[in-house]
Amino acid sequence: MSGDLDQATMDRLFAKARTYSKFTKAPVSDDLLRQAWDLARMGPTSVNCQPMRVVFVRSSAAKERLKPALAPGNLDKTMAAPVTAIIAHDMEFYEQLPKLFPHADARAWFVGNEAMIQSTAFRNGTLQGAYFILALRAIGLDCGPMSGFDNAKLDEAFFKGTTLRSNFLVNIGHGDAAGLYPRGPRLDFDEACRVE
Predict the structure, then answer these.
(1) pTM for this structure?
(2) CA gap 132, 144 in Å, rounded
Protein backbone atom coordinates (compact mmCIF):
# COMPACT_ATOMS: atom_id res chain seq x y z
CA MET A 1 0.00 0.00 0.00
CA SER A 2 1.14 3.51 -0.71
CA GLY A 3 0.34 6.70 1.14
CA ASP A 4 1.38 8.62 4.20
CA LEU A 5 -0.15 6.34 6.85
CA ASP A 6 1.94 3.50 8.19
CA GLN A 7 0.67 -0.07 8.25
CA ALA A 8 0.00 -0.02 12.00
CA THR A 9 -2.36 2.93 11.51
CA MET A 10 -4.10 1.26 8.58
CA ASP A 11 -4.51 -1.87 10.69
CA ARG A 12 -5.94 0.15 13.60
CA LEU A 13 -8.47 1.89 11.39
CA PHE A 14 -9.40 -0.94 9.04
CA ALA A 15 -7.50 -4.20 8.59
CA LYS A 16 -7.38 -5.35 12.22
CA ALA A 17 -10.24 -3.25 13.62
CA ARG A 18 -13.11 -5.27 15.02
CA THR A 19 -16.67 -4.76 16.22
CA TYR A 20 -16.61 -5.26 19.99
CA SER A 21 -19.46 -6.66 22.07
CA LYS A 22 -17.50 -6.69 25.33
CA PHE A 23 -15.36 -4.00 26.89
CA THR A 24 -12.96 -3.78 29.80
CA LYS A 25 -13.91 -1.71 32.86
CA ALA A 26 -11.48 1.06 31.81
CA PRO A 27 -13.36 4.37 31.71
CA VAL A 28 -13.74 6.58 28.66
CA SER A 29 -13.05 10.21 29.52
CA ASP A 30 -14.91 13.24 28.22
CA ASP A 31 -11.58 14.38 26.79
CA LEU A 32 -11.37 11.27 24.58
CA LEU A 33 -14.95 11.79 23.39
CA ARG A 34 -14.11 15.40 22.52
CA GLN A 35 -11.00 14.25 20.63
CA ALA A 36 -13.09 11.82 18.59
CA TRP A 37 -15.64 14.54 17.83
CA ASP A 38 -12.93 16.99 16.79
CA LEU A 39 -11.60 14.47 14.27
CA ALA A 40 -14.97 13.25 12.97
CA ARG A 41 -16.35 16.74 12.37
CA MET A 42 -13.65 17.38 9.77
CA GLY A 43 -15.02 14.81 7.29
CA PRO A 44 -16.88 16.15 4.26
CA THR A 45 -20.66 16.49 4.04
CA SER A 46 -22.75 17.98 1.26
CA VAL A 47 -22.74 21.80 1.47
CA ASN A 48 -20.88 21.29 4.76
CA CYS A 49 -24.29 20.60 6.34
CA GLN A 50 -22.99 18.52 9.29
CA PRO A 51 -26.37 17.12 10.44
CA MET A 52 -24.99 14.53 12.89
CA ARG A 53 -25.68 15.08 16.57
CA VAL A 54 -24.40 12.75 19.30
CA VAL A 55 -25.68 11.94 22.77
CA PHE A 56 -23.18 10.06 24.93
CA VAL A 57 -25.04 7.75 27.29
CA ARG A 58 -22.86 7.03 30.31
CA SER A 59 -24.78 7.53 33.57
CA SER A 60 -26.94 4.82 35.12
CA ALA A 61 -29.99 7.06 34.79
CA ALA A 62 -29.38 7.64 31.07
CA LYS A 63 -28.79 3.93 30.50
CA GLU A 64 -32.12 3.17 32.16
CA ARG A 65 -33.80 5.56 29.70
CA LEU A 66 -32.07 3.79 26.81
CA LYS A 67 -32.84 0.27 28.02
CA PRO A 68 -36.52 -0.02 26.91
CA ALA A 69 -35.59 0.85 23.31
CA LEU A 70 -32.97 -1.90 22.95
CA ALA A 71 -33.55 -5.23 21.21
CA PRO A 72 -33.00 -8.17 23.60
CA GLY A 73 -29.78 -9.22 21.85
CA ASN A 74 -28.26 -5.77 22.40
CA LEU A 75 -29.39 -5.21 25.97
CA ASP A 76 -26.60 -6.75 28.08
CA LYS A 77 -23.69 -5.53 25.96
CA THR A 78 -25.05 -2.00 25.83
CA MET A 79 -25.73 -1.81 29.56
CA ALA A 80 -22.17 -3.04 30.23
CA ALA A 81 -20.42 -0.71 27.75
CA PRO A 82 -18.65 2.27 29.33
CA VAL A 83 -20.39 4.67 26.92
CA THR A 84 -23.03 4.33 24.23
CA ALA A 85 -23.22 7.03 21.58
CA ILE A 86 -26.60 7.74 20.05
CA ILE A 87 -25.82 8.84 16.51
CA ALA A 88 -28.63 11.12 15.44
CA HIS A 89 -29.29 13.75 12.81
CA ASP A 90 -30.94 17.13 13.10
CA MET A 91 -33.90 17.54 10.77
CA GLU A 92 -33.33 21.29 10.91
CA PHE A 93 -29.62 21.09 10.10
CA TYR A 94 -30.17 23.70 7.40
CA GLU A 95 -30.64 26.40 10.05
CA GLN A 96 -26.86 26.17 10.60
CA LEU A 97 -26.04 26.65 6.92
CA PRO A 98 -25.60 30.45 7.11
CA LYS A 99 -22.68 29.69 9.45
CA LEU A 100 -21.43 26.48 7.82
CA PHE A 101 -21.85 27.44 4.14
CA PRO A 102 -21.73 31.26 4.15
CA HIS A 103 -20.88 31.84 0.49
CA ALA A 104 -24.39 30.93 -0.76
CA ASP A 105 -27.94 30.91 0.59
CA ALA A 106 -27.94 27.12 0.97
CA ARG A 107 -30.61 27.31 3.67
CA ALA A 108 -33.12 28.35 1.02
CA TRP A 109 -32.43 25.13 -0.91
CA PHE A 110 -33.89 23.09 1.96
CA VAL A 111 -36.66 25.14 3.59
CA GLY A 112 -39.99 23.52 2.70
CA ASN A 113 -38.39 20.66 0.75
CA GLU A 114 -39.08 17.74 3.11
CA ALA A 115 -37.79 15.03 0.78
CA MET A 116 -34.46 16.82 0.36
CA ILE A 117 -34.22 17.53 4.09
CA GLN A 118 -34.82 13.88 4.99
CA SER A 119 -32.43 12.40 2.44
CA THR A 120 -29.69 14.93 3.18
CA ALA A 121 -29.98 14.61 6.96
CA PHE A 122 -29.98 10.81 6.89
CA ARG A 123 -27.27 10.36 4.25
CA ASN A 124 -24.84 12.89 5.64
CA GLY A 125 -25.57 12.01 9.27
CA THR A 126 -24.80 8.37 8.47
CA LEU A 127 -21.62 9.40 6.68
CA GLN A 128 -20.57 11.42 9.73
CA GLY A 129 -21.34 8.42 11.94
CA ALA A 130 -18.86 6.38 9.90
CA TYR A 131 -16.26 9.13 10.31
CA PHE A 132 -16.95 9.01 14.03
CA ILE A 133 -16.25 5.27 14.20
CA LEU A 134 -12.91 5.82 12.46
CA ALA A 135 -12.13 8.73 14.78
CA LEU A 136 -12.79 6.55 17.83
CA ARG A 137 -10.42 3.92 16.47
CA ALA A 138 -7.81 6.56 15.60
CA ILE A 139 -7.60 7.76 19.21
CA GLY A 140 -7.29 4.24 20.58
CA LEU A 141 -10.87 3.38 21.49
CA ASP A 142 -12.87 0.40 20.29
CA CYS A 143 -16.49 0.39 19.29
CA GLY A 144 -19.49 -1.74 18.57
CA PRO A 145 -21.84 0.02 16.15
CA MET A 146 -25.34 -1.42 15.92
CA SER A 147 -28.93 -1.02 14.99
CA GLY A 148 -31.27 -3.39 16.81
CA PHE A 149 -33.30 -0.84 18.76
CA ASP A 150 -36.65 0.90 18.49
CA ASN A 151 -36.02 4.34 16.99
CA ALA A 152 -39.41 5.69 18.07
CA LYS A 153 -38.90 4.64 21.70
CA LEU A 154 -35.36 6.03 21.74
CA ASP A 155 -36.46 9.32 20.18
CA GLU A 156 -39.26 9.63 22.75
CA ALA A 157 -36.79 9.06 25.60
CA PHE A 158 -33.99 11.33 24.38
CA PHE A 159 -35.28 13.70 21.68
CA LYS A 160 -38.92 14.43 22.51
CA GLY A 161 -39.83 17.95 21.44
CA THR A 162 -36.65 18.38 19.38
CA THR A 163 -35.75 18.12 15.71
CA LEU A 164 -33.31 15.24 16.32
CA ARG A 165 -33.89 11.70 15.06
CA SER A 166 -31.86 8.62 15.99
CA ASN A 167 -29.95 6.68 13.36
CA PHE A 168 -27.75 4.06 15.06
CA LEU A 169 -25.87 3.33 18.28
CA VAL A 170 -22.18 2.86 18.98
CA ASN A 171 -20.94 1.18 22.15
CA ILE A 172 -17.57 2.69 23.05
CA GLY A 173 -14.72 1.58 25.30
CA HIS A 174 -11.56 -0.47 25.41
CA GLY A 175 -12.43 -3.74 23.75
CA ASP A 176 -12.19 -7.10 25.45
CA ALA A 177 -10.91 -9.55 22.83
CA ALA A 178 -12.47 -12.45 24.76
CA GLY A 179 -15.84 -11.38 23.38
CA LEU A 180 -14.82 -11.36 19.71
CA TYR A 181 -16.21 -13.76 17.15
CA PRO A 182 -14.08 -14.90 14.21
CA ARG A 183 -13.93 -12.17 11.58
CA GLY A 184 -16.64 -12.51 8.98
CA PRO A 185 -15.71 -12.75 5.32
CA ARG A 186 -15.59 -9.68 3.08
CA LEU A 187 -16.42 -9.38 -0.60
CA ASP A 188 -13.50 -9.10 -3.00
CA PHE A 189 -13.16 -6.15 -5.37
CA ASP A 190 -14.46 -8.14 -8.35
CA GLU A 191 -17.51 -9.29 -6.41
CA ALA A 192 -18.63 -5.81 -5.39
CA CYS A 193 -17.08 -3.32 -7.80
CA ARG A 194 -16.82 -2.57 -11.47
CA VAL A 195 -14.91 0.04 -13.40
CA GLU A 196 -16.65 1.51 -16.45
Answers:
(1) 0.96
(2) 12
